[in-house]
Amino acid sequence: MAPAGLAMRPGQLHRYAAPTEPPKEVDETKRNVLKLLAVAGLVGAAGGGLGAGAFQYVQPPSVGLASFPKVQLLDLDGSPLTVTKVEAEYNVLTDDVILFNYPLGNEPNFLINLAPATPGGVGATNVKNGIGHQSSIVAFSAICQHLGCPAPAINFFPPGTCPQTPGGHTFYIHCTCHGSTYDPTNGAANLTGPAVLPLPQVILQWDTSDDTIYAVTEVGPPVNGHLSTLTGDYGVGTQSQLTKQSPTRLCNFPS
Ligand code: FES
Fold first, then answer.
1. Ligand 1 centroid from CA 194, angstroms
2. Strand ranges (DSSP E) for 16-131?
3. Ligand 1 atom nearest residue 147's Cα
4. For residue 51, is it left (φ>0), alpha (ψ between -120 and 50) or beta?
5. Which of these, 188, 177, 86, lies nearest to 127 by C-alpha position?
6. Candidate from 149, 190, 192, 251 with most ligand 1 atoms within 8 A of CB, to mutate
7. With a 6 A CB cut-off, is 179 part of the ligand 1 pocket?
8. pLDDT tens-digit profile of 105-120?
9. Which residue has the least CA distance to atom 3 on ligand 1?
10. What is the distance in A from the centroid of ligand 1 to the CA of 211?
11. Measuring CA to CA, which of 47, 77, 92, 151 is 20 to 30 A from 157?
């Protein structure tokens, strides 16, 4: 049986007062999220009208450096790297990939000594921007200028590893992804495509007072994948330690 207050005769209209609700508090977080979604929708619609390519230049908040720092190179064991060590341990026949980051943490570079393993053997001395007793120690970005394959997919190929390039080069930096080849004796200029730009070169400085080595700047195009070589990650600090990788060996020249 219905309670007395709700009992009605058949056909009787009855009006109930709308329930009184306490005023709702404004949820600022939800409101702000909705605002953002609305703005995103408008921007997306505008982007669609302008073409999908309009968004390729939208960058996340950038980090980086204002200028190229002077960074001391450290050996694999963390001790100061010296020209004496490099000349004793590495030469044009070195098979390992020797890397260091500079100037940013996500910018790996090759350290290569192009000097012959034995006097008068195959190799190169007095090369562009080389340091050491034979001006044969150089450093280049280890990220390919084509589509950005990093070491060890791109690496230095000692003499005899793969056939000569067009032009007769027997040792070079070769990217196994699509076959780009660079000349480390000439600023990593292109020897074969599909890349068209040279690899950026790290300029090394030899402090002859204590035989130590510093990276001091970088020349050439920006590191691939970066708007500028100084933008896109945090700096390495005042020192950068060598690392070693095994190379990928594949003679993948464009046909
Ligand atoms: S990424 Fe190196 S050749 Fe394509």
1. 7
2. 71-74, 97-101, 108-113
3. 1
4. left
5. 188
6. 149
7. yes
8. 999 999 999 999 999 9
9. 178
10. 36
11. 77
User: Both tokens of residue 218?
Assistant: 């970088």
Is residue 178 within 6 Å of ligand 1 at its C-beta?
A: yes
175 touches ligand 1 (CB under 6 Å): yes
pLDDT given at position 70: 98
Residue 34 has pLDDT above 60, yes or no: no
Q: How many angstroms is it from 150 CA to the middle of ligand 1?
A: 9
Give the contacts of 64 (CB within 8 A, at least 6 positions apart). Answer: 104, 228, 230, 231, 232, 233, 234, 235
Poorest-pLDDT segment among 44-53, 173-182, 212-221, 238-247: 44-53
Q: Which domains are assigned to the chain?
A: 71-245 (2.102.10.10)
C-alpha to C-alpha distances, 48 to 29, 42, 52, 55, nearest whole angstrom? 28, 10, 6, 10
> Residue 110 in 3-state DSSP?
strand
Q: SS3 for 102?
A: coil
